Amino acid sequence: MSTTFPWGVFLFCLGLLAAVICSIILFLLRQLAAMVTRLVPVTAIVREDESLVADIARRVGGPSVPIPFRYEYKVAGRSYRGWQLSLQRNTAGEAAARAALAARQPGDTITVYYDRDHPARAVVSNETPAAPLWVRIGLAAGILALVAGVALVAAG
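Below the sequence we write its predicted structure tokens.
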């Protein structure tokens, strides 16, 4: 009794899985883009937080250095606070970490973008991320595998 591997069904399932995963990622990116259109710019003031500064000093030497800062902004007379943390590659050691931290000094003004529906939600950047190339390639490959699977199943 000889059995052959059902390549058509395999390609169909693989293509369907890849297409679904990539479609979900694209959907989430579109939702994020829709949220960005609700963001409103406001001026914020950078605040000092000794615990965050101490955390940087403790982590210097690893593959990446956290560069944190806190900020405060007002919407309709009400104060809100937020924080931002970015990970910088630690290529130059402690000096680079200190220089990155010095880029945002307490009292500096920055622009933050708050959600007009939920003013307590704010971000420092309002850039919408583009779909990564691997998502586009994965979607195309998934559709191609889906079509090839259907063709193989139909050919019998």
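Residues 1-37+130-156 form one domain.
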